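Dear colleagues,

As part of the handover before I leave the project, I'm documenting each prediction I ran so the next person doesn't have to rerun anything. This entry is a single chain, and its sequence is reproduced below.
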Amino acid sequence: MFRIAFSFAVIGVACIGSVCLSESLSPNRAETHLGKSRSMGDGQAWSWVKTDLQGRPTSMGVTLTDSALNGLPTEGGHSCCDGPQWNLPLPVGIDAGPVKHVVINWNPKGHPPEGVYTVPHFDFHFYTISETDRLLIKNSESNDAVGNRPPPSEQLPPDYIQAPGVVGAMGCHWIDSKTPEFNGQPFTATFIYGSYDGKVTFIEPMITKATLESHVNQTLPVKVPAKPADDRFVPVQYRIEHDEAAKTITISMDAVSK
């Protein structure tokens, strides 16, 4: 079960049901720092970053109340680039390494490729570019030489291949060709890399709504690039955890940090 370590040095505390959130002002301690919550569906969602004794990020993720999965829009998705999304502020004053902002995208009907990702699911985007730069990315086809320019191969994990096209306000998507959904099994959860104009621009756990609703607890490996673009936070695994007492679902990434 995921547990939140609260700080005594806070600038504010808010409670949602039995879950209390705090914003920490002491980044040089081993603790978990929370961003401000946002309304999502019938519930709430927020980002968080766990730091070590030197204030370096060791884990980060998002937490949703169970009710956030209810009352969601039934139309839209990133096949049309303007689907439902929630921008989650990072904790104030905390070093999140290369991550600059977090966006949850909801795809109520999924998106291509057909028969693989065309099921209701969430994209949990952790962007390594500013929101301003992200919003400048335009939707385009595979002939977009700038948008499709790949990063150096050593900055991407082994077995990852580039999906065609550039998705507006996101970029190119890189998928693991060895992942179960491309090898005869249904899609439940996978880990995506993103790029634009030769740079890695996001990392992304992508998880079906059904998986989150099942209240599964699992830890899944993340393949690591030979030479990460930014080694301050390099995910080696991601986790899906349900806290029955708190009625929350947490999607987290654990990493090697420097």
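The helical segments are 131-135, 209-213. Confidence is low (pLDDT under 50) at residues 1-27.

All the best with the project,
I.
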